[in-house]
Every structure is written in C-alpha cells, then in structure tokens.
Amino acid sequence: MADRLRVGIVGSGRIGAVHARTLAYRVPEAEVVAIADPNQEAARRLAGELGVRRTSADYREITADSHVEAVLVCSSTDTHASVVTEAAKAGKHVFCEKPLDLDLARVDAVLAATERARVKLQVGFNRRFDPDFASIRRRIAGGEIGAPELLRITSRDPRPPPVEYVRVSGGMFLDMTIHDFDMARFLLGEVEEVYVSAANRVDPRIGAAGDVDTAVVVLRFASGALGTIDNSRRAVYGYDQRVEVFGSKGVLFNANRTPDTVVAADSTGVRGPLPLDFFMQRYADAYEAEIRAFVRCVRGDETPPATGADGRRALVLACAAKKSLAEHRPVEVSEIG
Amino acid sequence: MADRLRVGIVGSGRIGAVHARTLAYRVPEAEVVAIADPNQEAARRLAGELGVRRTSADYREITADSHVEAVLVCSSTDTHASVVTEAAKAGKHVFCEKPLDLDLARVDAVLAATERARVKLQVGFNRRFDPDFASIRRRIAGGEIGAPELLRITSRDPRPPPVEYVRVSGGMFLDMTIHDFDMARFLLGEVEEVYVSAANRVDPRIGAAGDVDTAVVVLRFASGALGTIDNSRRAVYGYDQRVEVFGSKGVLFNANRTPDTVVAADSTGVRGPLPLDFFMQRYADAYEAEIRAFVRCVRGDETPPATGADGRRALVLACAAKKSLAEHRPVEVSEIG
Amino acid sequence: MADRLRVGIVGSGRIGAVHARTLAYRVPEAEVVAIADPNQEAARRLAGELGVRRTSADYREITADSHVEAVLVCSSTDTHASVVTEAAKAGKHVFCEKPLDLDLARVDAVLAATERARVKLQVGFNRRFDPDFASIRRRIAGGEIGAPELLRITSRDPRPPPVEYVRVSGGMFLDMTIHDFDMARFLLGEVEEVYVSAANRVDPRIGAAGDVDTAVVVLRFASGALGTIDNSRRAVYGYDQRVEVFGSKGVLFNANRTPDTVVAADSTGVRGPLPLDFFMQRYADAYEAEIRAFVRCVRGDETPPATGADGRRALVLACAAKKSLAEHRPVEVSEIG
Amino acid sequence: MADRLRVGIVGSGRIGAVHARTLAYRVPEAEVVAIADPNQEAARRLAGELGVRRTSADYREITADSHVEAVLVCSSTDTHASVVTEAAKAGKHVFCEKPLDLDLARVDAVLAATERARVKLQVGFNRRFDPDFASIRRRIAGGEIGAPELLRITSRDPRPPPVEYVRVSGGMFLDMTIHDFDMARFLLGEVEEVYVSAANRVDPRIGAAGDVDTAVVVLRFASGALGTIDNSRRAVYGYDQRVEVFGSKGVLFNANRTPDTVVAADSTGVRGPLPLDFFMQRYADAYEAEIRAFVRCVRGDETPPATGADGRRALVLACAAKKSLAEHRPVEVSEIG
C-alpha cells in the first residue's frame, strides 16, 4: 500500500463533501484522488476547493481506476448496492453511507461480493463514533452498571424531510430509526423481538405517502434486557439525541450538546441553550472520527468498527419494525432473516 | 357540617399514621376522632401521640359511629372494598388508598355503593398532588407544548417489596404501575390500547411468585398520542420518578428531587446528590396535599381531584397490561371493561 | 422543667408568627403560652389561631411571667437588647432574631447579662440550619476538600427593602451581609481582615439615605484562606443564595432551590424554574429547624448552635466592613473589637 | 496582497505548533512559509509535518524575508518585544502571544513601532474567541441583562507551572491573571481601581520564588460596576473557567466544558464528567478562531479583535494588582499609566 491511502469519492453532495474535506484537511494518511457525481458542477467545485485532480460524471471511472485504493460511497441510496459491488469487484475497500440497500436480498448480494473480494466494508453508522455513546458502551462493557436491564433511546429530528424524500426513503424505520437500531445493538447486543406503535402526527402528507412520523419501538434483547426507542420527525427545540442505560448496579445517560453553555436568568425564568440543530452539527466530530477509523482499518488491515454485517442487522430490525406496524403485533427478528 | 371535619382513620400503619399526623398537625379544618386497627397497640400509640380519644380493633365501630363524618381507609388492600362500602352506606365520605380492590367487579360494586349513598370518594393517587406533575399537567392544559405526541414515564423503585407482599399484591402492574397508569391519564387523558414487554430480572423469587419486576408499557391514547412507562423494582441509585411530555410546540420534563443540592468535584469526578430514597420522602408534600384536598372537597361539596372512577380506570389499564403480558399482544382497553 | 417548654413570644409580626406556628404545630415538646405585641390586634389574631391564652401589649408582662420558661424575641431591632436583658434577668432562656443590637457596646452588655443569668441565648442565624449549608460545613469538617483556600458567598436579595427601613437598619452590612458574615465564620472559622468595595446602583434613594446596595466583600481568614461575598439588593430572577468552597482536594457548592423542577424547551430555548422568591420561602425549613434546635438545647441543657458570641462576631465583621468602606482600605478585625 | 497570506512563525513550541497546524490545515486563505526556532530540530520536525520549505535558527531570517507578509510570535516572552519590533519595522503584520513584554515602557516602544509601521498587531487573548465568552459579551451589549453591576471571573488552573517558569514569568498576575484582566475589559470595559488579596497556599516553592498562587482581585469599573476574579494555581478537578455577569435586568453565566456529557448514578451518588483538563483542550477552538480572525483582519485591512493597546491595558491592570498586593491597599489604575 502506498504511503497515503488514495481515495475516490462517489457523490459530492452534503455528506460526500463533509467526508472529502475531512480526508483533505484532517487525515494526512489519505488523499482524495477523484470525485464522481452526475452533477458535474458540484463535483468540480468540490474538487477545486480541495485540489483534487480528477472528476467524472460516472462513478465507474472511479471504481475502474487502478490508482484508487478505497471508495467512499456517498451517492443516493438506490445506487449504493451497485457502487459498492463494483468497487469491491475491482478490489477497492469501501466506506458506504447507510443503508447499503432497502432490500435485504440485495444487501446479502452486496455482502457476498465484498466477502469474495476480501475487501473491507464499513457502513456509515456515525453515531458509534460520538464520544458520549462510545463512552457509554465502554462503561457498560467495563461492568460499571452491572447487567443492563433497560435501554432508552430518544431520537427526534428537528424537522421532517421533504415529502418527496419520504417517498423514496423506505419510510421512517429504514431511514431514521435504522440509526437507533444500530445504536441499540452497539450498546446492548442482539435484538430478538420488535414491537412498534406509531402514528402520523407531524405532517399529513407524510401519512399520505404511507409513512409515519412519530413512533415508539420496544426491543427485547437476547440478553433479556428490554429497550425503547422514541422517535419524532419534529422536535421544535432541536435535534434530540439521548441514550439512557439502566442496569443492576446503576444507570448511565448523556445530554444533548449545545453550541455554548451560557445560561441567562431574568424575571421571567432561567434560560439555557438549545441543542445543536441537526446531525451535521451534532455529529461533526463523529463524521470525522468514522472516516479516520476507516482509513486506519484499511491501512492496518483491521475489521471496521461498523461492518456490512452490522448494516444488515440494523436493516433486519427496521424490516421487523415495519412488519410489526403492519401486522399490529410483536415480531420475532428471526421471522425476517 | 360541624366546624371541623370529624375523621375516623381505619388502619394505623405507615400511611395511616402519615395521614393522621397531617390531619392532627397541619389541617386545622379537620380533627381525627377515632382510629381503628386490629393491631390495637399501634392504634393506641398513634392515638396517644395525637390526642385522639377513641380507638378500636374493629373498623365497624368507626363506620357505625354517627359522630364520624369522613373515613380514611388505610388498611390492607383486601379490606378496602368492605370498609369503603360500609362507610358509604353509613353516609360517610371516604378517602381510600389505592387500589379500591384488585377485582374489577368488586370495584364496580363499591362505586355503585358510594354513588347510591351520594358520598364523596377520593382515591389515593398521591402523585397528582406533586408540584412537578401538577405543573406539567397545568402547562399542557395551557397549551404550552401544543398537542402532546409522546409521553414518557420513568418509574423505578429503589428496591423490591418482600416476596410475601408480592404474592398478595396482585402483581407489579396492579401494585406499582397503577400509579403510572393514573399519571398517564392525569396528563394525557384516556388510553385505548396497552402493550407490555416485561421480565423477571431483579429477584428470581419474584418470578417464582408469578410476577415480573422490570417492564416497558406502551400506551396509545384516545388523542392519538403515544406513551411509554418504564418500570423497575430496583434502581440502586434511588427512587426514580420522572415524566417527559413531548408535543408539537415543545417538551416538558421534571427531575428527581434530592435531599440537598450540594455538588462536589475532586480529581475523580463531579458528584451530586442521589434522589430522595422512596415514596415516603419523595411524596411527603403530596401526601399532605391530597389530604388537604379531601377535607376541602368534603367541606366545600366539590368533586375530589382523584375519584373512584379514576381508581377504576387505572385498574382497567393494569388489567389490560396483565392480559397483554399473558397473551403477548397489544390489548384494547375496551376488551377489559 | 415541665414536660413541655413554655414559651412566650415577643413580637407577632411576620417572623414572630412563623416561629409561633412552628412551636404550635410542629414542636410537641413546647407550647406557646403568651404573645406580646404593642399591636394588640396582631397579637390577638395570632393567639386566636394558635389557641394561646394570654396576649399583652407590653413585653414585660412576658418577661415577668414566672410561668414562662423561654422567650422568643421577634420585635423590632431597637428593642432586642432591652427584651433580651430583661428576659435573662428573669431567668428565661432566649432566642433572639439577629442582630442583638447595632451597637457593639450594647451587645456586650446583653452578653454579660445573659452570662450572669446563666441562661441560654440563641441568635437567629437561620441559614446555619439550611440542609445545603449544613452539609457543606459537615463535609469540609470531614476533610472532603482538604484545606479550604477560597470561599465564595453569593447573596442577593430579589428586591430592596423600603427606604424607611434602610434608614433604621444600620445599613446593608448590618442588616443583610451580617448573615453572610456568619455563614463565612460557620464554614471557615474566624476572619482577620475585611475589605469592601461597594456602590449605590439599585435605587438612588438608598444612596440618599447614606447606604449602598451593591457590594463585594473580601475576607482573609485566620486559617489563611481568602473569601468573597457578593451582595445585591436586587436580583430580578429571585433570591440568590449560593456558597462555593474551594480547597486543596476539591470544591463544594450548592444551587438555588426552586418551587418545582420542571424544565420546558421550545423553539426559543430551554427554560427552567426561578429560585424561590425570598427568605420566607427559601429558608422555611431552616426557620423550623432553628426553633426545634433552640427547644432541644434548652431542654437538654446544651450550647445553642448559634450563640450570642456568634452574633457579636458577625456584628464586628459588619462594623469592619463599614469602616473599610468609609476609609477605603482593608481593615483588621482587631481594630473593631 | 497575494492570494494566500504568507506567514512566518517564530517559535515552534507547543503554542507555535498549534497555530502552525491551524494555518496549514484549516485556513485555506493562508500558508506557512517559514518557521524559526533556536531549537532547530523542533522547527524542522514541524516544518516536515506541514510541508513548510524553510526553517531557521534565527528569527531575523523571517522578519527580514520579503516573501513573508505576516509573523506569528510564539517564542519565549523575553523575546516578544524584539521580534515584534523588527517584524513591524520590516512592514510585516504581527500576531503576538501575550504578554508583549513584562515591562510597560518596552510595551509602549513596541506599540509605537507598530504604529509607525502601520502594520496590524494582534495580541493572543484567545479567550475572547471562546463561544461562551463571546456570547456573553454580545448579549450584554445587546442589553439582555440591563446595566452590568457585578462581574465574577473564576479562573483556576489545574496545576501550577514549574517553579523555574514562575521565576521568569513576572508572577501570577502577569502570567495568569492577565487573561482575566483582559476578559474583564472585554466584557465590562475599562477598570479604574484594583485591589488584591493573595496568598501562597499551593506550593511553598512558589512563595519562595516571591510569588502567590491563590488570589482574589476586586475591580471597580469606570461604569461603576464591581467585579471579582478568583484565581488558584491548583484546581484538582480541572481547569475552571467560568464567568458570571449580574445586571439590573438579569444574569448571564457559563459552565465548564467537559469531554463528554455522560452522567452515571449508582448507590454511592450521581457522577458527571470533569472539566477539560487545561487550556490546550478548553480553548482549542478559540485558538483556531483567533488565528482565522488575524488572517481575516490582515487580508481585509480591519482592526484586530485584540489589539496591542488591549495588551497594554491588561498589563497595566496586572501591574496595579502587583502594586496593590505589595502596598496592601486599593490602587488607582491611573497610578500605573
């Protein structure tokens, strides 16, 4: 392997640009050598900013480029499976934004392809790299709270996505809750049963598109622990991202992050800062850390901290949630696959 | 009605003594005129402390006493229905600790008796009188958070009751969660559907007694809002009593109360005080407030703030929870009654 | 001594009524047997509420009453010295609101009189009985933060007193800061030097009356520790009562108390409750505890937890503060007496 | 001016390296073109990491280099005046770590030199760029708390510097408190009087070197507001950096920053995270922001947000503090210069 990992980036939208800048400015062990995007103007603008030589409209120019060692897949969800598969076949290591695909069979095909090619595949579960959640996991593992008995994930977005996006996203469970399913597994291990109660409360157009925007998910873990996830597409006070783990010897929980810590009091009350607005602010450090981890794993030949198999398990839980909602009953995860 | 409300107390155990002292020392509008308890020594000791003239082993001496205007029923649960019924028949107003009875048919009979007698019946849902929860209810009603969408009740006891008590208590849902069911109704109104996931994690003897000690309850309200209750019989850090209500325009939540507010920091961390140990400390003010409210309602001929019908509804939800656990499915509240 | 301590109360104003009710309703070991107040109507109203038989316009009817064992002095400051002295001469134990007097020589005379009479004298430094400050003192004494190095007292009233009161009060240091001087001694021991920087910022009429309303006081303790007190007569957000003690091994601090713990967040911010409004709310429990302590000390023949000598020391510090302000220099406490 | 500002860095120690990396990785509008340090190995290592072409042992090679447009002075304090003066004479804009010099006359000479040369001079008061303190200043200026009446700065280091450093540092007021003096001016404007009470409590060797390690400073502002600074060289719980500003309409304060937000509770207490260890962690973002601001000011021909005159004023306050300590009296700032 060359001194610096040569990375090609597929997709120069918001998250593609974030990862590209991380690699260019903050990861000396890697360099961005090519950017592909059907939106050629976006690709060229980003390449210009970062001093990247090559851009193309077609991602295949990157997956076919023998100079490229690793590919970051930041294109639209419906292209993930194809890009990852082709990159893997060409022997490139792959970082792919979640989800690998909305269809379980296609995900299985992607995993088989990367396995055959013996390349690394890391899935973009950025929250695993957040210092709060990483600390909670480490402390549970260290026995600080004894046996975990109850998990609670609060995961509320500040505002819903456009309805057009809702229509192609696979629905809230595959698009939004999938991060919480991964967090549940990250902290407490495998889930055996899923039950969902959900509603369309925020925007009737979301309901008209066949989706929900407010949900409570109950999890039963293989360990016997129980968990809840509580989701909303609209928390007017900002992005609400909290975890609480209750165990036989204690409890661990985090708080939302705020832009500053300034509190004011006057005759009308005590006022503190709102949480950081949304994921780009809240998880800025985590996005950086996941890309660093990917580069480190590829260069050091280690297993990525969020594998393709992790991506698959979270998808299975999301599918179980959809089935539970449709059939109005608890669903065994083994029913899904 | 005489100047001071003449109250007889049935049951001089822990909670009976608390209410008796409240009446004697802090409610000038009432006086305790008689105390009944099969444990004569306990009754006499309490009567001595408070300067109460009459004690008896048989509660019927109180319900039959024409001098008594109101009866506080603080005896063991299995006696509640009989005492309330006899007191009502004798025209006395009644304050009864929860639950009225573990059996829905008997509760209906009790309610019918009090209705026929046109006496007041207040049920001991003390948490309604806690300043935090009362404030949350008031602020929801005032529209502060718009339409409620998600309710979360955290209700964890510091330690489980003796197994002998578990055996006669009707189980965790009727004994402990029933307070949370009432709180859910108090804050967000009627519940239409209940789903339970529960486990025996704290003490195997509780499981051997046929009960659970760790549970997640999902509620669907008539309004369309969703809710969760999360229970444990053992929170090693103390009595954990929190509510969070999330709505279209904001969120409201409380914190646990602590004996003092002193925080210490040293080289090992920042340490704050634990929550008050258990209900006798946490709800001391609420116990006083509910008795004041009862006296006020009787004297002012007003509807009690927690009626017999409220007691019945909470019991129905607890029965629905038991059925959901037994049948492993969401249960419509209308299936119960 | 009789079974119940027979107490006479001189002064039936706000604080006198608070102490009288405490004795009547919450201290079974004592009873109020007489109330004196030149305002006969106030005395009779309070006596009526509490079932006290005797009232008088002249406090001497109480100090001369052989039936009375202890006297609570809650009259105006200018009468304290006379009442305490006469009560002591008549062999009564005395609880006196602070200050004993504004004049040091008169205070010395009072102390001599109570000493000669061998009666107990407790001064109304109610804050010593607050659970937060008592806990901080206990923990310092237990070595939790090593050697104290810096003390910080935040003591801000919600609003200034009437200017008429300011004129007779002896000024902010004798009226308000005196509590903080006592707190400083309570926590860290004797003070050797006082420096004051102060201003008239809140109300020009206070300045016109020759007083200040905003101040910073610097203390040097005999132990070598340093301290600051920061005072304002107008904290628009409520009564601000905080202490922080910094030591070689850590730090201890408390927070303000609030009527409830409910926090709300909406699109404009996170809002929490304001501190309890003023001393009657903030120190309600402390007022009760100090009276209980007084009764206990008299009945048990123990030294009161806030003696006449403590009252004198706090007065000395207040005088030093006045001198520092007048002479614009640090003042040795030994210069005062 | 060229497209990218060409910067030379004098001093490749800890803070020099931080600024160099900021310029290299995070400020595309600038580039590091030369690094000077008598410690040639350190200079070369840093230059190698950042791809900087030129290094030298003698800073004069940088100040004399016509290619260099701006100089960052990160060398030892005793060299600041010479480097800044020579750089200014050569027409370079200068960013200088605080203090410009320990001697007021030399500072005046430096200021005269930069003024004559019409170059920008920014002094390294990094805390002005912290989001908390910047927000507090903005909100005071916006009238949120009315007229400021009391300022409180808590500024405690986690551990003292080596005694060798203490000997050459000019003492705590010039080395450490100088940041707090600048913060006081930044928030509330000019100071007219300074009073100090200080002690040697942490390490006797600091006292032997003629310095103090624990101090309380009282400030009187031109506006009439009062302020305190409380310093310690050893806060065992970490770097304590808090500000509170109390005004006629409210109060503003910040909290310490922590590495994560995770709280744990068990049977022994509730434990939260300690503050970030020291200035390199606490002010990492502020260091970056001050360098960005410097580059922006030079390129945009704007006045720096912390000028040489600001550096001088803070030094004057530090000198007044030393004088107050020596003479044991309040010192008018006008006595110093």
Structure description:
Four copies of one chain form a homotetramer. The first copy, chain A, has 337 residues and is of the alpha/beta class. Chain A folds into two domains: 5-119, NAD(P)-binding Rossmann-like Domain (Rossmann fold, 3-Layer(aba) Sandwich), CATH 3.40.50; 128-285 and 314-335, Dihydrodipicolinate Reductase, domain 2, CATH 3.30.360.10. Helix content of chain A is 40%, strand content 24%. The first copy, chain A, is built from twelve helices and 15 strands. The first copy, chain A, has helices at residues 14-26, 40-50, 60-63, 77-89, 104-117, 131-141, 163-168, 172-188, 204-208, 279-282, 284-300, 308-327; strands at residues 5-10, 30-36, 54-56, 70-73, 93-96, 121-123, 148-156, 191-199, 214-221, 226-232, 240-247, 250-253, 263-266, 269-272, 331-332. In chain A, the strands form three sheets. In chain A, strands 12-11-7-10-9-8-15 form a seven-stranded mixed beta sheet. In chain A, helix 5 links the parallel strand 5 (93-96) and strand 6 (121-123). In chain A, helix 1 crosses helix 11 (284-300), helix 6 packs across helix 8 (172-188) and helix 8 (172-188) crosses helix 12. Chain A is globular, with a radius of gyration of 20 Å. The model of chain A has no long low-confidence stretch (mean pLDDT 96). Chains in contact: A-B, A-C, A-D, B-C, B-D, C-D. The A-B interface holds A 147, 149-150, 152, 156, 193, 195, 197-199, 201-202, 214-216, 218, 220, 224-228, 230, 232, 234-237, 240, 246, 248-251, 328-330 and B 147, 149-150, 152, 156, 193, 195, 197-199, 201-202, 214-216, 218, 220, 224-228, 230, 232, 234-237, 240, 246, 248-251, 328-330.
